[in-house]
Fold this sequence. Notes:
Elements: E1 9-10, E2 16-17, E3 23-26, E4 30-31, H1 40-55, E5 59-61, E6 67-85, E7 88-104, E8 112-123, H2 128-152
Parallel strand pairs: 3-5, 3-6, 4-6
Antiparallel strand pairs: 1-2, 6-7, 7-8
Amino acid sequence: MIFSSCKPHLSLSGASIPIEAKTISVGFFINNTSLGAPSLSQRFSEKLRDVVSQQTNLALLKQNGDLQFEGYIADYNVMPIAILSTDVAGQNRMTITVNVKYINKFDQTKNFEQAFTRFADFKSSENVSIKEPELVIEIYRQLSEDIFNRAFNNW
């Protein structure tokens, strides 16, 4: 009993969460890029909120949680990655970078500011505006997992 009070709380996902933490907040991640759909900010903020609420039993607040995520979408681009012949791309890559600041009110050594980048590839014959929603969902899933793991699993 004495030792268990010193250990961090473990959630169902195996995440290491301070036992004192009761709340978590995920701020609105503003889109600081000139490209991408206007909904990028809303969709990413919601995805990160979903991940933390599904993988922890902390109460989700709009702001000032015991644990806090804030930041912005720093980069969004689509570039050719595989060239079939002169001036013809075989594959394109959508890349999204999110800058995240994490604050742990109980253990400042766990705080961080970091850029997270993920990408998804698609055929150049596919229309990017049609493919974009599917690619963004996958990239946001990966980014959210990376951010969650960095904050709670020390990855």
